[in-house]
Specification:
Blueprint lengths: L11 H17 L4 E6 L13 H11 L6 E6 L2 E6 L1 H7 L9 E5 L5 H12 L7 E5 L5 H12 L8 H4 L8 H27 L5 H10 L1 H7 L13 E11 L2 E10 L2 E10 L5 H20 L6 H13 L9 H7 L2 E4 L1
Parallel strand pairs: 1-5, 3-4, 8-9
Antiparallel strand pairs: 1-2, 2-3, 6-7, 7-8
Helix pairs in contact: 4-5, 10-11
Length: 335
Amino acid sequence: GSAVQMSVSLDVHRFTSRINEIQKFIEKKSLDHLIVALGPTIDPEEKNLRDSYSEAIFHWLLGYEFPDTALVVGKNGVSFLSSSKKISILSQLEKSSIAVKLHARTKGNENDGFKILASGLGLDSSSQITSFLRSPERGFCHDFTKFMADNNIDINRIAVDISELWAVKDKMELDYIGYASIYCEGILNDFNQVIRKNFNISQASAQKSLLSNLETVSKKLSEVLPKGESIDYFEVGNLNIRKLDDIWSIDVTCKYKSYNSSFARIFYSSQAPEDVKNGLSDAYDARNYMLKNIKSGQNSADVHQKFKNYISSLQNASIFNCGSIGHSVLYFFDV
């Protein structure tokens, strides 16, 4: 997903409208600036170092990650600090109606770039800012954080609040969630095939088979992605398989350009106990109830509570944990 790995065309209109949303956000929170800084590209083995908010904001604004880059959004404009190569890509944003300032940094002389960025924005110890940093313990983000501290510029991290920016999804975001959902569906279908061949396969063997097929599943999806999108953006964030007697359950979370989709399914054999079958029948009824009652724009917390209340009213609901069934209600099959 790194912007420097490919020929990049940035959507200036989308960037402009979303910067407007961030400016409304910082005004609402009585902030002077929002700072987002990404460190170097992170290997999959180092996912624990990721700041998903940083990645999400860059994808949301630009459609790509820009490693080793700082973005500062203020009430009067935007500034970027990055390498010369990435600044040349970001120069497309100068067509925006929003004032965009681009600063190239020199490797090994980072403080000069930080000083230019700070002075141009009027950052000082009185600034009220918030920041999201990826892997702040090393490299670019470490140097940037140290510069701010040395100049007595306090950083206020308010990661939870920034999620307000994604409360309402536009078409592009819904498309990305849709692509992540397609990947989830492909993995679930693959799992379905694995246990249909041998329902009594061990949990470890089923997990191994599923993991070994992930690349094959993603390649099959290349045909359904529109031009300009790539299977390289697919990522599995979570994959859990469990077996209990005559029941299999799987839940998977997939990402596409940092947008998540989570699916879960329950599979059971004809030998499953009657109370389990009845409970799953209730879950099926609950799914239909929610599909009829969910409306666009509803608060997700309210929807979840409404679902839990309905589940609790069902005869066989007591054998299930409502939190788990909230995921698993969507699909299950008699195998």
